[in-house]
Amino acid sequence: MKRTSGTSSHAGHGRPRAGTRHYALFSALVLLAATSASVAAADDGPGPLGVTSVAEKTTQSARVGVLVGSDKTGDLTDNHFCTASVVHGQNHNLIVTAAHCLSGDTDLVFAPGYRDGKAPYGLWRVKRRFMPDNWSKDQDEDSDLAFGVIEPQDGKGIEDAVGANRFRPGTSTGATAVTVTGYPDSRDEPITCTNKPQSHSRTQQRIDCPEFTAGTSGSPWINGDGQVVGVLGGHEEGGLTPDTSYSVVLGTEAAELYKDAAADP
């Protein structure tokens, strides 16, 4: 079960929506039970690790949203297919997601803080995409990371509207717990889970969090300092089971890609 929704041809991959809808009947019961549990703080504070719940409406969750084809914005409920989040850039116009979410030539928009079919902070057009050469040439899973440059609105960038997290490559896997927030394509509200990542390989890291099904590709992994230290994707485009997710290790390639994207006007 790859983490990109099969309802869109943007990435050309993914599990069919019918399977996701069927699975959601079970997962909704699990999430309802977990909602009342306090999720552990990303600095290993008190609370259960590895518990998935509905994300509360906060300034932090407002920075996470969904990607939608520009021709599908009339019905966000049935057409969001990946997750992305706002990261700081010198022009206040940057989102980060998985490379397989931005592959293809379809025009895309980003809806931060999306819930219940509505985009409370507006719809923002993705005007440019930055992907590593190794992904563009060979779809190398170790390069499954991308940035989108967002077109400003009324002279203001998306970061001015919802704030941004810092993108932090070079952080050791498992240095702290992280919080993963994303949108399954079968739900119209974000889910979130905190746990401590583990090394999968020299170039990939993994985290055990239940219910991260299709649509959660691109979900940010955020540490207690508000830094993005992983992005759901990489190995098997994020993983073939809903309870274990992957990210590329954010190293030199990620740092160079971010530098180029962050400087784009």
TrEMBL record:
The keyword Ribosomal protein does not apply. SUPFAM superfamilies: Trypsin-like serine proteases. Residues 192-205 have a biased composition (Polar residues). It is an enzyme of class 3 (hydrolase). InterPro entries: Glutamyl_endopeptidase, Peptidase_S1_PA, Peptidase_S1_PA_chymotrypsin, TRYPSIN_HIS. Residues 183-205 are annotated as: Disordered. Residues 1-42 form the signal peptide. GO terms for molecular function: hydrolase activity. Keywords: Hydrolase, Signal. Its EC number is 3.4.21.-. PANTHER family: SERINE PROTEASE (PTHR15462:SF8). This is Trypsin-like serine peptidase.
